[in-house]
Amino acid sequence: VAAMAAQGSSSGGQAQAGAGGCLVIICIEASESLVEPMCTTADLQQELVPYVLSQSLQNPAFLKLTKPERQMRVKNLTQKMLSGETGGVGEDEDGDIAPHRFWAHLRTKYGTRKGHLLQLLKLLEPSIRDKQVALLRFESEVDSPSMSLFVRASEPCSGVTAGVANAARRDFAPGSFSVGVLSEWLQDSFSGRRAPPLWSRFVLECRRAGAAGFSEVRALVVCTAAQSIDTTPDAIGLAAHAFHHESKVVPYISSVSFGPQCSERLAAMSELCAWTGGHSFNVNDPSSLQPAAEGLSSHLFSCQTQAKDFHERRLYYGQKQALGTCYLPLPRLVQSDATAAVPMSPSASAKTRSVADLLRSGLGNKFDGTVPSESMLMVLSETTVAMPRRWGRSLRCWREHRELRDVVFGEPGGLGLELD
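RESULT FIELD:
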């Protein structure tokens, strides 16, 4: 009952803040990699041996050992560091190095996804502070679903599960958003129960925003896990269909992914953002935070960005869908707009025809606009000749194929001025 009352009060607060305004939804993936150092395997190997040797040489007991004993001790310490930071809190009786000191050193030098996230939101705070903000903390599984994921994704059937879902959500009234409060909220999440997955709750938030009277929803999705099943192309495609058919307000989504990500997942998230009218960013080092924050501030969270600006990007993606060049089979979002509902004149419909259709109707012969010919592939795959010479050779092959005269070499045929 308390959870239902809290949920009702939250919906009531949204209703008071709605009435044609803008709601900002920030979805943060609270995975285990959020606090891991952002270093590659090569960086880890580069840091491990010098750190172990430097710390070992500072131990007087290590210097008294024989050479084979020193080698064995360094090997054991290296394995202990690679096993993670759960090997001990402090130094043991033999004076070995505690693993958590090494991992703290890596966090200090390379940073963490949580640190980059807080730095990004700190740069975005002036643009977000004056808006109604809803935070969603989500956590999925790696590679494949589990029983825990099914339980967390189900509708709450008790006060405990409803409390877990409410604990993974937080509202900020206009003018009250603070990165410090968000940092404490994220820190408390690691000591409690795991948060539910993203997309079903995201769609529910958009439905509530439409019922509360918000005219638009601008969302930022922060991805921290490289193999989360929430960011697979199939999951993103299902989420787009859910937004289109179940949500009263289709949000303008932009995304930020931290660390190396799979190219298929990045392409799927980029398509979802383009479909809704937003942008997608991938941040691997701190130098990329400032440009990403500037892009989000000027496009997603700026008061000067109006609905027509987002609609322009949606129309552009709709044109890509008409050409069949999209990566995901997403629904046609622009058809629900008023401009797409107006019947098109014959001249306007002729302008939207593809290049291949125009060539087929104009030339009156068969034209394949998707598969290149074998001769074209042979010319394009040539790598031993410089680009100008390759271009000249392709022109000469084309002239020979059309039986046109080559003025330079004096070959028989037409002069080559009639180009139908």
